[in-house]
Amino acid sequence: MQKMLDRQAWLLLAIYASFGFANALSGTFIPVYLWKASGSYLTVALFALAQYSFSGLTFYLCGKWIKEGNKLNCLRVGCLLSGLFYCMVLWLKQSASGMPFVLGAINGIGLGCYWVAYNLIYFEITEPDTRDRFNGSQGLLGAGTGIIAPWLSGLLISWLANERGYTLIFTTSLVIFACCGVISFFIHKRPAQGKYDWLYPFKQWRQYTKESKEWRYVFAGITAQGIREGVFLFLINLIVYIATNNEAKVGTYTFVSSLTSLVSFWLCGRILKPQNRQLSMLVGVISLTAVIIPFFWRVDYTMLLIFGVGTALLFPLYIIPITSKVFDMIGATKQSVEHREELIIFREIALTLGRIIGLIPFFIYITWVNTEKGLVWLLLIVGASPIVGWFFMRPLFRIQHKRYGGESPPKHAIRAKPQSEA
C-alpha cells in the first residue's frame, strides 16, 4: 500500500508547479516568438542546442555544490537565472532572434541549476513506497499548469496587439520565478554529506561490476528518452503555430492535451505498481510511436489535436516507470545512496546526450529536406526512440522482479535529518 505524501513533499510539489507554470506560460511560446522574428527553423534549433548543452554542463559542474554545499541555494539560483532570461528577452524584443545561442545558454544554465537541485531534493524527500504517488502527483500538477498557462498566454497574445501580450506573459513568469525562491525557504535544509567525486559518473563505464552494468543499461534507456525530448519539447507547439498562424490555437492545443494528461497521470499514479512497470512501459512506447503515423495522411490542426490527446493519454505509461525505476536504483544500495548526487548527474548526462543526438536529424531535415513529408518521417524516427529505451530498461525490471518479487527494493537511507532553517 502506498504511503501518503508529507508536508515537505507537498512544498516541493508547490515549487514544481510554480516553476512549471512560469515556464509553461512563457516557455511554450519562446520557439514561436523566435520563429516569428526570424522565420527560420535554424534559429529555434540553435536556441534548443544551446539550452540542452549548457543545461547538461551546468548539471555536471553544480554537482560539487549540491553535494558539499547548500542545494537549496542552487535551486534558487536556477530560479534567478530563469527570471534573468525573460528579462533579456523583454529587453531585446524582436532582436532576440539574432542571438539564439546566447539566450539558450542563459536559459540552459538556469534550468540546469534548478533541476539538479530539484532532483536531489526529490530523492531525499521521497521513499520507494511514495515515489510512484509523488511522480503521479507531479505529473498531475504539471498537466494542470499545462492546461491553464499556455491557454491563458495564447489568449493574451492574441488579444493584445504590438507584442504587448508577450511582454505581459514574460513579466508574469519573472514574478512567479521569484515566488518559487520564496517557497524554497520552507523546505528543510539537509546538511551536506561526503565529498563529490567528479569522475564517478564516468566510472560506471570503466568498471565491470554488476551494479555498473545495470547503470549502463540506465544510461542507454535515458539517452533514448532524451532523443525524443530533444525534438518534441520545442517542435510540436511550433508546428501547431505554423499550421494555424494563431497563438490562441497553440494555447487551445496545450489546453486539450494537458487536460488529458492530467487525468492520465492521476489514474496512472494510483494504478501503477512496481511489479507492472515493464508492461506499462512497453505499452507506452509502442503507443507513443503509433500516434505519429496518422500524420502521413495530413498535418493539420485536427490531426495535431488527435496526436496531442493520444500522446498525453499514453505518456504516463512510459515516463512514470522509467523515472521511478531509476530513482529506486539510486536508493537500492548504501553505495548508490552515498553517491546519489553523482548518479543523478549521470542520469542527466544521458538525457542531455540524447537531446543533442535528437537534434542531429532535425538539423539534417532543415538543411537538406525541409518538406512536410520529411517532417513526418523526422517525427516518426525520433519519436520511436523510446522503444529502444524499453529494450535497455527491460533487463532492469526483470532483475527487480527476480530480487524483490516485483516490489521496489528496500531503501538504504542514510539521509541526514533535516535542519529547521533553509
TrEMBL record:
<feature type="transmembrane region" description="Helical">
    <location>
        <begin position="98"/>
        <end position="118"/>
    </location>
</feature>
<feature type="transmembrane region" description="Helical">
    <location>
        <begin position="139"/>
        <end position="160"/>
    </location>
</feature>
<dbReference type="Pfam" id="PF07690">
    <property type="entry name" value="MFS_1"/>
</dbReference>
<feature type="transmembrane region" description="Helical">
    <location>
        <begin position="166"/>
        <end position="187"/>
    </location>
</feature>
<feature type="transmembrane region" description="Helical">
    <location>
        <begin position="374"/>
        <end position="393"/>
    </location>
</feature>
<dbReference type="InterPro" id="IPR036259">
    <property type="entry name" value="MFS_trans_sf"/>
</dbReference>
<feature type="transmembrane region" description="Helical">
    <location>
        <begin position="74"/>
        <end position="92"/>
    </location>
</feature>
<feature type="transmembrane region" description="Helical">
    <location>
        <begin position="344"/>
        <end position="368"/>
    </location>
</feature>
<dbReference type="InterPro" id="IPR052528">
    <property type="entry name" value="Sugar_transport-like"/>
</dbReference>
<keyword id="KW-1133">Transmembrane helix</keyword>
<feature type="transmembrane region" description="Helical">
    <location>
        <begin position="250"/>
        <end position="267"/>
    </location>
</feature>
<feature type="transmembrane region" description="Helical">
    <location>
        <begin position="217"/>
        <end position="244"/>
    </location>
</feature>
<dbReference type="InterPro" id="IPR011701">
    <property type="entry name" value="MFS"/>
</dbReference>
<dbReference type="GO" id="GO:0022857">
    <property type="term" value="F:transmembrane transporter activity"/>
</dbReference>
<keyword id="KW-0472">Membrane</keyword>
<feature type="transmembrane region" description="Helical">
    <location>
        <begin position="303"/>
        <end position="323"/>
    </location>
</feature>
<feature type="transmembrane region" description="Helical">
    <location>
        <begin position="279"/>
        <end position="297"/>
    </location>
</feature>
<feature type="transmembrane region" description="Helical">
    <location>
        <begin position="40"/>
        <end position="62"/>
    </location>
</feature>
<dbReference type="GO" id="GO:0005886">
    <property type="term" value="C:plasma membrane"/>
</dbReference>
<keyword id="KW-0812">Transmembrane</keyword>
<protein>
    <submittedName>
        <fullName>MFS transporter</fullName>
    </submittedName>
</protein>
